[in-house]
């Protein structure tokens, strides 16, 4: 099933953009109180508040594809830490401890840090990465 192989660079860009946007909403709800959720109004000095700053700043950078590899690597660490701090203590299986999303984000961002942002990125337009 190699029919999508010619589109791998573009699909990598789509993966970067969508995962960046999905993570970005975690930052916007914590820092900008949009969309409204139970995470609105948290203290910026708490662990979720600090994570929200990372999610907001690096989520924007990853979505537009600027400093993509560094942003993805940092977000991989943030989401891995979120898994171990908030979920792993509640049980071994991510399905049962609610950590599936954090674990998946950690590995998607780690892949993007290694593979690069793809052609639809500011980095690629600057000739810095693809």
Keywords:
130 residues, mainly alpha, 6 helices, globular
Fraction of residues in helix: 55-70%
Termini Cα gap: 24 Å
Total discrete domains = 1
Q: Give helix and strand order, one letter per element, not per position.
A: HHHHHH
Structural class: mainly alpha
Mean residue pLDDT = 96
The percentage of residues in β strands lies in: under 5%
Secondary structure: number of strands: 0
Name the assembly state: single chain
Radius of gyration: 15 Å
What's the total helix number? 6
Let me know the largest β-sheet.
none
Overall, the morphology is globular
Low-pLDDT residue intervals, each spanning 5 or more residues: none
Protein topology:
Elements: H1 8-32, H2 47-64, H3 68-87, H4 94-97, H5 100-115, H6 122-125
Helix pairs in contact: 1-2, 1-5, 2-3, 3-5
What does this protein structure show overall?
- With 130 residues, the chain is an all-alpha fold.
- It has one domain.
- Helix content is 67%, strand content 0%.
- It has 6 helices and no strands.
- The protein has helices at 8-32, 47-64, 68-87, 94-97, 100-115, 122-125.
- Helix 1 (8-32) runs antiparallel to helix 2 (47-64).
- The longest helix is centred in the first third of the chain and has 25 residues, at 8-32.
């Amino acid at each position: 099933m190699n029919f999508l192989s010619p589109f791998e660079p573009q699909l990598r860009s789509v993966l970067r953009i969508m995962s960046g946007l999905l993570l970005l909403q975690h930052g916007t709800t914590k820092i900008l109180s949009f969309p409204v959720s139970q995470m609105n109004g948290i203290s910026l000095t708490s662990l979720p508040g600090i994570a929200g700053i990372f999610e907001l700043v690096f989520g924007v950078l990853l979505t537009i594809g600027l400093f993509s590899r560094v942003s993805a690597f940092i977000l991989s660490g943030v989401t891995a830490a979120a898994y171990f701090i908030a979920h792993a203590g509640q049980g071994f299986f991510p399905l049962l401890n609610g950590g599936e999303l954090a674990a998946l984000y950690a590995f998607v961002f780690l892949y993007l840090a290694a593979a690069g942002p793809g052609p639809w990125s500011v980095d690629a337009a600057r000739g810095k990465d693809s």
